[in-house]
Amino acid sequence: MQETALSALRARFGEAFSVSAAVREAHARDESRLDFHLPDGVLHARSEQDVVDALALARQHRFPVTPFAAGSSLEGQIVPVHGGLSLDVTGMNAVLGIEPGGFQATVQPGVPYPELNRQARRHGLFWAVDPGAEATLGGMASTNASGTGAVRYGTTRDNVLEMRVALMDGRMIRVGSRARKTSAGYDLKHLFIGAEGTLGVITELTVRLWPLPEELLALRCTFPTVREAAECAVLVMGAALNPERLELMDEPMIAAVNRHLGRTYPEQPTLWIELAAASPAALQDALEVCRALCLDAGAQDVATATAAEERRALWEARHKAYTAMSAQYPGHAQLSTDACVPLHRLPDVLDFTRQRCLDRGLNTSFVGHVGDGNFHVLFHAPPDDHATWAAIHATYDELMQATLAAGGTCTGEHGVGLHKQKYLAQEHGDTLDVMRDLKRLFDPHGLLNPGKILPDPAG
Amino acid sequence: MQETALSALRARFGEAFSVSAAVREAHARDESRLDFHLPDGVLHARSEQDVVDALALARQHRFPVTPFAAGSSLEGQIVPVHGGLSLDVTGMNAVLGIEPGGFQATVQPGVPYPELNRQARRHGLFWAVDPGAEATLGGMASTNASGTGAVRYGTTRDNVLEMRVALMDGRMIRVGSRARKTSAGYDLKHLFIGAEGTLGVITELTVRLWPLPEELLALRCTFPTVREAAECAVLVMGAALNPERLELMDEPMIAAVNRHLGRTYPEQPTLWIELAAASPAALQDALEVCRALCLDAGAQDVATATAAEERRALWEARHKAYTAMSAQYPGHAQLSTDACVPLHRLPDVLDFTRQRCLDRGLNTSFVGHVGDGNFHVLFHAPPDDHATWAAIHATYDELMQATLAAGGTCTGEHGVGLHKQKYLAQEHGDTLDVMRDLKRLFDPHGLLNPGKILPDPAG
Question: Which residues form the FAD-binding PCMH-type domain (chains A, B) (predicted)?
């Protein structure tokens, strides 16, 4: 960034604009820790007007702007690879209103979803998308994040009603509607959801809240093989049990969790299922149907947890899988895949991928939102172990080929960012030009989070 | 259309291209019967290649193309107001495949959704969006249609996984994914859904199917006032009962249904609720919760229907409301509104609208997908009764003002077409220019269904 730009930012924003090394470093990498690039400066935006004015200065001085919130992205989305301004919206963290009768809340983009849940609970409602970490609503919309709740409640995309978006040309627009459904003209809302801040900056969201389930219980079912666990997941989805959550963990992942959290779960492929009902009787009923189904499918051990305590413990274990793996291999770099396939193809694609990992002697673990057909392979190795990383990337390539051949997608919930552009080109090569046209339309000078999503046409 | 264009179409398509008066007239109006305009010719497309070639000829000879399927649109979407070619895809009516384990089906755009349901039922699955009539999947995607199932299963938008779209420049693109969720790049799928054939022509869809509910029952609850019925709907939605359907009909509508179908339903404001569960016990349970809730909310008479026969009879009555009204007033023209508001605002907006109708002595009826906050006012009057039509349009304007003030939308499920452009401008005035940019991007010569959705910038 040129001195003129820096002083213009200082002049407009004063203390809220920082070029200190510590602040810049705190905005140079995301949770994947795969990339590091310093912004030239960081703006702690406090209002929509701050965002609008920052974009105006970017337009005038031609510097890149990379929106930043919790920094919990996994594909480098918030890393300012071309420098410029890191636009930090974590200070825009007000829950502006909750309408219990409308099942909706209006929030600023920097609100962490656990905070929204704390406030919604009073009304017997909750925000149903739970990617983990302290992800913010703005960040979740920008990557279309999901998590364990998506199998029942959909992804962030399905739960955003309306947004206010600051465009690069200075316009503020409102997209979507606070009504539950609309057919009013071209759907712009879904264009900005999942755009990773490359088309506009989200400054406000009205999101859908759901009634808290009356009665809940969790099942932990172990299986002899991952395939049998995955096939059971297909059966559960077909039984109209409508589970709240349906997760798979493989043996190494359970082992890591046991070590990290001091648990004693059987170290076998495991399905974790959460069921809800409006009454204890109905819940008991659903449990019996589900238990019978799992046993028919080859489950060896079916444990149930009804007390809130036990259930919390189970889901803590699931949510800490990623950190459990890192803890087990200090100093290793980690890489998580995010394939999502049509449910009926999941057992084959899982099997294939695990086999290729074995063939290559890769020490990996699998965890999956298998009710959605979405699973993550957690690769890890010492950063400088080039042979292993070559094997990892070769396996990743094969997984992607199998996924796309199965009609799936290279990313179910993490987004493209810096690392999936090659796979995006394989998945949507026929529409990359359309996507580039849209990028040019909203950001003709390529200043909004440059380097993300779209592969360089040259490369 | 010029003679050169007509002969080019004849040369390419032979018998499949028709200029006969009868065929053209069959493509000149939709179900609303508010508009009539003849196309210059009609192509009965049989394949994706037919569509691609038709667009190529349109490009070459600069004639308009208006996609046509069931013709059941309600806002004139399929009326070729600028003449040109009516592109009839009803011949593209093959269910290409059903993947039971993937909960999805791949269909051509001309497949009527009841036909998809006939074929899916064998697998214990169904397509959950039911706008009524013999609507096709392509048409439903083009208007983002919904209906009584949306409260539980979402709209067409929520149930389309992947589409193939023919673009005006000759490209065929695939948008979306067959996976349940994806974060792979800009979401183009949602841009074409609800675009009413103005951005491209849908040639294939892969859609989501749902497991048929195990146990079902329907409730019919009468209330002293429409407000109490609407307020009860809000309570039902809050109780996590997750109803399959939640519909409201007012007294005149029930009366019309009684007369038209020879029923004897109490002619009072009525909520029709369908509940589902995985077991009879669970269903009984849900019924008790729901019944108690309705009685607390002021329900006077709660009748339940468990037998498939009775339930079919109930929903037949609901689905035939529109025709019941027409039958009652032969020779009258009808106009249906389609407001959708956040649920907590529904009672007020309903009350306000009914009051304005009374004030003006308008003889109307109300029916609503109230679980979504969506309701229809059915206006009717003799076509030449200009005074009444002026009063109707004045009331419509007031309803739209109240709807938009409540954070709602001018159309929940019918789309914009020819008749809601004024209201679209009121609802999304800040984004009309963006929508026009998108239209220019995909259809620079304005040949795809011209005259729909976007108001003339001049006007």
Answer: 35-212
Can you list the alpha helix ranges (DSSP code H) found in B338-431?
A: 346-359, 386-405, 421-428
Between CA B375 and CA B378, with CA B376 as vertex, the angle to 5 degrees is 155
Q: Is the pLDDT reported for residue A459 higher than 60?
A: no
Residue type, A94: A
Q: What is the pLDDT of residues A213-236, one digit of tens each?
A: 888 999 999 999 999 999 999 999
Query: By mean pLDDT, which of B120-134, B278-292, B370-384 is the weakest?
Result: B278-292
Distance of CA B169 to the CA centre of its chain: 29
pLDDT average, residue stretch A155-159: 98
Are residues A160 and A189 in contact, defined by beta-carbon separation less than 8 angstroms?
A: yes
**Residue of B180, B344, B350 best to disrupt the A interface, most CBs of A under 10 A:** B180
**Chain B, nearest residue to A436 by Cα:** B186
**What is the C-alpha separation between B187 and B178, in angstroms, rounded?**
14
Question: Structural domains in chain B?
Answer: 3-90 (3.30.43.10), 100-211 (3.30.465.10), 215-406 (3.40.462.10)
Per-state percent for chain B, helix, strand, coil, to nearest 5: 40, 20, 40
Give the orientation angle of helix B251-261 with respect to helix B321-328, to 10 degrees: 80
Residue whose pair of structure tokens reads 């090659």 in the numeric block: A422
Rounded CA-CA distance A106/A364 in Å is 41
Question: Above 80 in pLDDT, residue A457?
Answer: no
Both tokens of A237, joined, read: 């989805």
At A142, is the secondary structure helix, strand, or coil? Answer: helix
pLDDT recorded at residue B133: 81
Q: How far is A76 from chain B (nearest CA, A)?
A: 14
Instruction: Say if CB B188 and CB B222 are below 8 A apart.
Output: no
Q: Please choose, from the candidates A60, A25, A62, A67, the residue with its C-alpha nearest in 3D space to the C-alpha of residue A43.
A: A67
The three-state secondary structure class of A67 is: strand
Q: Which residues of B touch A282 (CB under 8 A)?
A: 277, 279, 281-282, 285-286
Spatial neighbors of A360 by CB under 8 A, at least 6 apart, are A391, A394, A395
Residue B13 is which amino acid? F
pLDDT, average across residues A123-133: 93
Query: What backbone torsions phi and psi does residue A254 show, to the nearest 5 degrees?
Result: -60, -40
User: What is the distance, to the nearest Å, from the Cα of residue B300 to the centroid of all Cα atoms in its chain?
Assistant: 32
Which tokens sit at A177?
């509607």
Select the residue of A181, A184, A206 nearest B424 (Cβ to Cβ). A184
Query: Are A95 and A115 spatial neighbours (Cβ–Cβ below 8 Å)?
Result: yes
Taking Cα atoms as reference points, which of A390, A389, A393, A380 lies closest to residue A329?
Answer: A380
DSSP state of A361: T
- Rounded Cα distance between B152 and B148, Å, is 9
Q: Is the pTM of this model over 0.80?
A: yes
Does B458 have pLDDT greater than 70? no
Distances A302 to A113, A238, A279, A407, B278 between C-alpha atoms, Å:
32, 19, 22, 33, 20
Give the three-state DSSP class for B233. helix
End-to-end Cα spacing for chain A = 26
